[in-house]
Sequence to fold (137 residues):
Amino acid sequence: MSRIILDTNILVYGLDAQSGYYASAVAILTNPAYELSVPTKVISEFFAVCSKLNVGIADSMKFYQEVQKNTTTLYPTPASLGHFEQLIQKYQPRGNRVFDLEIVSVAMANDIPQIATANLNDFQGMPEIGVLALVAK
Fold:
C-alpha cells in the first residue's frame, strides 16, 4: 500500500465535478491501494477555497466528512515543526510556498514519501517529497 499525503487541490477537484481534474482526483481518493493522509493545514485550506468559490458549507462539510472515512488526519507535531524550520532555511520560500513546506514537513514527520497534487511546480526541486500528479482530461 502506498502512503500518500493529499494536497488541498485534490479535495477541491474531488468535489468539483465540472473540473478537468475531477476524475483523476476521485481516482486517487477512492483507490484502495493508497493509504491517504490529510494534514489539518489542508483541511483549513479546503474550507477557505470552498468559501471563495461560493460552495455552500453544507456541501463542503458533507464532502469533507466522506473524505474523512478513507483518510487519516495528521496534526503538526514537534517533529514536523523541526522539519518545517529546516525546510524554511533550505528553501527560503516566499508567499504561499510557506504553506506547501508545512504540508511537506508533516509528511516527513509521518514518513509519508509522496504527495498527490495538481500543482507540480509547488514541489518541484524538493527531494524531500515525491509527487503523484493529477491528470486533467
In short: Helices lie at 8-15, 22-30, 40-52, 57-68, 78-91, 97-109. The mean pLDDT is 96. The CA atoms of residues 51 and 57 lie 8 Å apart.
